[in-house]
Amino acid sequence: MRIEDSGLVVPLRPDVTTVGRGRGVDIRLDDPSVSRLHAEIVRRGPYVYVVDMGLSRNGTRVNGRPIARRVLEDGDVVSFGTARCRMGGIPREEVDPDVELRRAVAPELTRREVDVLTSLCRPALSDEAFVAPATAREIAADLVVTEAAVKQHLLRLYQKFRIPEGANRRTRLANEVIAMGLVRPLPPVHVPQQNRPMDAGRTRPPEVRRPGTGHGPGHVTGPGRQATTAGRRAS
């Protein structure tokens, strides 16, 4: 990858190359429009694709088009915020670069794994500019379980979603889960102020859709159910 501002050519790692403004990334871009962890460039055999981490409002573009995840071809210009880089040395393959690299079938998940993914992804679905998935400690506090138990669940989830070892593994898991559509925010619940003044403006937690069903735990335990009950009492 050639950084256009400096002309520096940086080789990609054999598996995952992180790009951003932070000190811990593989390719550091000193540009205020670039987030600390902006994107990942992933190599899978002859294929190379870029994944926007969703941690910056400035986003990632390929040849001027905003993307979430896209296969790269030789000569593509990838913009991280306003920092432009050109890809080179990618073997030509018969693949549509616009194809979203998502697995067609989600792995089978237990109810507890669904709960862990819900808690993991909740921060990533907020409107904040820079946000990271929940830590194992935060998930443990949210689910009222031990941190060791959460780490065991995460290890199994890494295997189920085929997330390779390396830095930012939790972020890659959350990104994959959101990209597959397993986690999505629910719309706000509007409760009349005279009935539930403390709940006005609250939003439901993210919904995780279990594979093979159309419902997630938000339909069962979310504040929307409480609001409906409150409405019955008021009437």
UniProtKB/TrEMBL annotation:
Biological process annotations from GO: regulation of DNA-templated transcription
Ranges where the record places region Disordered: 188-235
Pfam families per the UniProt record, alphabetical: FHA
Domain of life of the source: Bacteria
Record's keyword annotation contains Phosphoprotein: yes
UniProt cross-references to SMART domains, sorted A to Z: FHA
Biased composition (Basic and acidic residues): 199-210
Domain (FHA): residue spans on this chain: 17-67
A single MF term (Gene Ontology): DNA binding
Keyword terms, alphabetized: Phosphoprotein
Gene3D superfamilies (alphabetical): 2.60.200.20, Winged helix-like DNA-binding domain superfamily/Winged helix DNA-binding domain (1.10.10.10)
Transcription among keywords: no
Protein name: FHA domain-containing protein
Organism: Actinomadura viridis
